[in-house]
Give the backbone structure.
Amino acid sequence: MANLTVNYMGLKLRNPIIASSSGLTNSIADIKEFEEKGAGAIVLKSIFEEEIRRELEKDINKMNRANFLYPETMDYYDTYASDDSLTNYLKLIKDAKQTVKIPIIASINCVTAEKWPYYAQNLQDAGADALELNVFVMPSNFEKSSQENEKVYFDIIKEVKKHVKIPVALKISYYSANLGAFIQKLSNTGVDGLVLFNRFYSPDIDLNNFEILSTNVLSSPRELSISLRWIAIMSGRVGCDLAASTGIHDGAGVIKQLLAGANVVQVASSFYKNGKDVLVNMLDDLTQWMDQKGYKTIDEFRGKMSQEKATNPAAYERMQFMKYFAGKGL
Ligand SMILES: Cc1cc2nc3c(=O)[nH]c(=O)nc-3n(C[C@H](O)[C@H](O)[C@H](O)COP(=O)(O)O)c2cc1C
């Protein structure tokens, strides 16, 4: 029987399928179910940098209460700054660690490296096995150069790594002027893993009501090819582990990403669409395929189809359809 264990950022996983950060990884009941269905690890729903900053401001105000301020001033803060999302998040980590055996990866949505990174230590102290930083800087500010936008990612990883010992992954998008070089540089910062790629709410327009809507909240299996291409191109050329994310809906998607060179895969939309049972099918498909091909471990075939190792490496860089369509009457 095939051995599915993998190593991701120094964590030993029983298999390479991780439940990606989403609304489905935000409660102990769901986390428990993911473990029962076979998940290798879980990335918790992200907490926002803003939530952390807000809580820290509250702490500063509490310190002021002790020393300088009038009690009624503090009542104001207690009333209007009573968001306890951070406390709840730390509790979620603690409870998850007590309930399941598989690794729990805490997640932070961040857009700056200012003020909050030292707080990451509290997530580590609550028991998180690793951290995933979901960073996105929308390159829509015309005043900023691409270097300025990209600097934020390097600053964040540098600051967070100063404060934690647990492994840290950076989850990024493919919005970069020079994506391959950007990924490679990030991978050499001391970050332990890169998650390629996050996926965002996409805008749409309601023609009747002239409203901007969000569309396609969940991915489709057709979207697999974007991360597949970049996992394949970057495999063997990075200084950290790679997690594939977006468009992995079935066992075939899992196997393709491993062949491209991913250490692990992350899945969200397929769980929303098909239920958590799809995990069982993915694991069955992976095991059966490995048995059929005679592979005993994942390492025996991981990266076999990466750009570095494939017999037709240029296929991953081909952009134009001309030749393909020429002979097919399209
Ligand atoms: C409803 C929903 C909520 C999500 N919330 C988060 C989040 O809090 N943090 C994060 O890093 N990614 C979040 N994601 C993105 C997923 O983790 C994943 O990267 C993305 O959906 C692409 O993978 P998929 O094709 O398997 O869905 C969310 C996705 C969905 C559908």
In short: The mean pLDDT is 90.
